[in-house]
Each structure stands twice: as C-alpha cells, then as structure tokens.
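Pilot study result, target chain (453 residues):
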Amino acid sequence: MNKSTRYLAALAAVPLLALTACAGGGGGDDASASGEITYWLWDSNQQVAYQQCATDFEAANDGASVKIEQYGYDDYFQTLTTSLVGGNAPDVITNHPSFFPQLASTGQLLGLDDVVESEGIDFDDYQAGIPELWVGEDGVRYGLPKDWDTVATIYNAGYLAEAGLTPESLQNLEWNPEDGGTWEDTIAHLSVDVNGVRGDEPGYDAKNVEVYGLGLKSKSGIGAFGQTQWSMYALSTGWEYADKNPFGTDFNYADDEYIDTIAWWRSLTEKGFMPSYQAASSGVGIKDAYGAGSYALVTDGSWNARSYYGFTGIESGIAPLPIGPSGERVGILNGLADSVLASSENPELSKKWVAYLASADCQDVVAEAAVVFPALNSSSEKAREAFSAAGLDVSVYYDAVAAGETELAPIANHWVDVLAIMEPAVESVLIFEAEPESLKEAAAEVDKLFAND
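Predicted structure:
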C-alpha cells in the first residue's frame, strides 16, 4: 500500500462532519477570537517568516496564541489524516489545491466565504487564477490565497561555460518527443562521463556519469502531476490533464502525447543524460545532488529557487522552460492557501488567523524573506525586489506568468485515488519494469474512478 492509498484509507475512516460545519459557520465575533490555535506548514524555509506573522498577530490580538508546527511535504497529508483520525488535528493548515477537494467532500474543512465578506477581501488584488483554485464544486470557498508558484530551468553557470555555452543559449531551446530537439542536444552536451567525455561525443559512457545534463526529482505525484518533472513537456504538446479544470471527469493519461512524453523522458536515463529513478530515489534530493555538482540543469519550482543559490562554489541562474511542439512554453501555475479544519475547537480565532495570513501585513513579511512569491500582488512585487536585493533574478518566473505561459494545476475529485494509480504505474516505467504503453491500463483504471460522477 503506497502513501496515497494509505491516505485515502485513513481519510475514509475520519467521521464525516456535519455539512453545516463544512459550509462554515462562525461569523467574526472578535470577542471569542482568543486562546491558542495550531498552524501547520510543510516548508521549513518559510517558518521564520510565518513565526514573525504569528508574533505580530498575537501582539494585535490580546489573548491569542498561534503555535506553528512544520512537517515535510512528502508525509504532510498522511500525517494530517492520522491526526484527524486520532482527534489531535491542527486548527489551520497550509493546503494544496489538489488535495482540498478530498478534505472538503468529507466535511473536514470550514467554508471561508464569511471571512471574505467580513474582511472585505477583493480577489482582484491577488495573482490571477489563484483565488479560483479554492472554490469547491458546491460553490463554497475553502482556502484564502497564500502564495503562487511556477516552474523554470535552473542552471550551473560554471558548467555552461565549460561546455562553451552561455545563459543566452538557453533562452529559446525547443523540445519534441521524437528526438528531444535542441533541448536534448543541450542536455547531452552538458552531460559528462567519468572520463571527461560529453554526452554528444563518441565514446560517452552512459553507465558511468560524473555530471548529468538534467537532474531528476523523485517525489509523490510523479505519475499524475509531474509538476517539476514532465508537465512542461506534455503540456507543451497541447496535451491536457483532463477534459476540464477544475473538477475534470475524463482524464487523458491514455493519450499518445502523454505516453510519448514519458517514453522520451525515460530515454534520457538510458542515454545517461539524466539519473535513473532508483538513483534519484536513493535519499539524496535534487537540490543536494545539484549542490554536489551532479547536475548541470534542473527544472524546479519557484519555491526552491533560493536554495540553488546557496551552494559554495556554484554560480546559478534561471532560464525559461523549453518550447514544445505547440510552439509554446507551458509550466504549471499553482498556489497554496490556508484552510481551517472543521474539527477546530476555536474556529473564530482560526478564521481570524487565516484572514491575517491573506493580508498585506503578513504577506509583506513573507515577501521580505525572499523565499516564495506571496499571492497578494503588491506583496508579490515586494518579494521580487527582495529576491533581487539578495542577488537572485527571479524575473523568469514572473515573465512566464505575465506572458500566459502557464496552466493551472489539476484539481479533481478522487485525486488521491488518481495518485494511487498513476504514481506506481509511472514508477514501473521509469525503472524499466513496464513499457510506456502499459500506462493505458493505468489510464483505464483512472477512468473507472469517474464513471459514476
């Protein structure tokens, strides 16, 4: 039983809360907004900034106390489900759009429309597309926008120079699933074996590689979502996750564009241009491997950008994603939010905290930390300035969104079930236990999930 399946089974065991709680009561009675609440994060890099937000919030609200707890992302939602079953869940959580429908449909989240009204929140002030991610099929809002993110290429400038390349040479690379285009040509040239032979030179030893042209991130969602792994390739063929987003009911994992993308992506490991899935899953994460000099390029999210600039002896830069067969670049635009659990014993204070997290007072503090891009537009611009002041030009991420080179993260019912099917299916392909065509069988299993919707 994998993590997604365990999550589903555990969530099914959580008692369904009353729908009136799901729709979210509690209006904004400040008199009851006191006591202690617990708030969960999964990114330790953001904890300092949010601790400052908590300190400021407590100073402005006499008798209020916010306890922040941090859990790693890979186990976050499983840990949350365990806490819900055990009756010791937090009050407020950092939430992911792919997971909130499951929580909302089982009555685990409070609606926040009353907070929007009482606080006069105008979603036109937030990154376009992000606020809409957090409205359920029932029309109830279950999250207030926290941040936004997208994906770009991060490069080791020293390795580029050694290969006779420049940052400018990465600006307009093209990709296709037949031969990989100039994107694969570049990855091959940046790959170096233990004898100093490059991937596009005769005698390259694909079994003994010192520097891979492209890194590989192993994490949950690699088969269904692939945000930082393969989404930029599949989506730039014109492929879509489902018939609509959000709440699609006809997924497209059987399409040739998807299967051909996975097949090409896997071929990079055979050629020695990208590490094997087994190596990427060995316990050394993509950032540490990059920092150790093992990768020349990685595709990663804006939330990790600063991490790549902290390695001694490595000068990093950020470049656009490759252009696909559609003639466009396409990266995922995602955004987290903060949600209140229906099990909270202090919903008034919890809602007040969530409103504060969505305000400029807190999001400006987050912006100054230069770790992520806040969802509030004014705070997002301050984050760009803070990154620049820290020596990081993150314009590529902003430019991609401004140019419309993004698509929203997939949101659907049964998403945990989709993960439980597609993740092991793609893993089997990547470790050569199955062929890419086998993904059609997994796709048929996904279709069954929505047969009665």
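One observation from the pilot: Residues 3-149+334-398 form a domain with the D-Maltodextrin-Binding Protein; domain 2 fold (CATH 3.40.190.10). A full batch analysis is planned for the follow-on phase.
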